[in-house]
Amino acid sequence: MPSPVPSYRISVAPMMDWTDRHFRFFMRLISKRALLYTEMVTTGAILRGKDNHRYLDFSNEEHPVALQLGGDSPKALADCAKIGEDYGYDEINLNVGCPSDKVQSGSFGARLMKEPNLVAEMVSFCKAKVKIPVTVKHRIGVDGKESYEDLHHFVSKIKGAGVDHIIVHARIAILEGLSPKENRTVPPLRYADVYRLKKDFPDLPITINGGIKTHAEIADHLTKVDGVMVGRAAYDNPFLFAGVDSLYFGSKETPPTRESVLQEMIPYLRSFRMGGGKTHHVLRHILGLYHGEKGAKEFRKFLTDRMHLSGANESILEDYVMR
């Protein structure tokens, strides 16, 4: 029997304010196999927050799903990793790539690339605490640590600590002078550095991330690395993932239609709303469903005109489907 294709072969990037449990449920209706990630959750929110259930809870349908943690204390990260494992997450991912001001002030995220020994210790502590995979998402460099030699040194340290898989955003992070948004587009993409890493660490699973928008690009990257992570394109054009299961995981199941996805969102929204949730918290994530299709603008307008109204509910979707 051939070994199963690992879920990290295709994944949706963790994105703050975007990849919450509602978006992940929505994406799971489109692809059953792609690996999904939570938004980054800080160790403080989990260990000191009054309601960590709000940050950690997820639907069983979301599997496979990884919990991304942000922090710089090996012990705190390990404690949170264990909590995540107990919640049922399939992977623990450490954020060493986020360039936001808030993350920098906490001395974690991309700034940690300047401290490979500390990141290795973080990995080691987590590995000792959980049985599920421990992975790291990082950049190819950061201010003052921008060379391939710096990147190689960083990866060699975390590999030695037992990291199971790395996800590499193929841009450096410029912490002084660029906003988080600019850091996603201004530093040039250096895919060749990630390919070189794979050659230098052939037994370490490596996923590439950054600026990937099409199936042609995905297929090309997969000839050189083990996995591809798609970020903004997955949110802006979620139906890109309708072909993922058959193209990259060998699934023989019939892909969903946009209309079938909307039908399945109706009971989900009803259940969430009856539990006290707001309709727009769910519907804001599905506005890109018809991206690139005739009627995409009308779909977005239909939802945005209605989802913030008092009493807004799942009838918005029912009405659209029945049009």
Automatic annotation (TrEMBL):
CDD domains: DUS_like_FMN (cd02801). The active site is at 98 (proton donor). Keywords: Flavoprotein, FMN, NADP, Nucleotide-binding, Oxidoreductase, RNA-binding, tRNA processing, tRNA-binding. It is an enzyme of class 1 (oxidoreductase). The record marks 95, 181, 184, 300 as: Interacts with tRNA. NCBIfam families: PRK11815.1, yjbN. This is tRNA-dihydrouridine(20/20a) synthase.
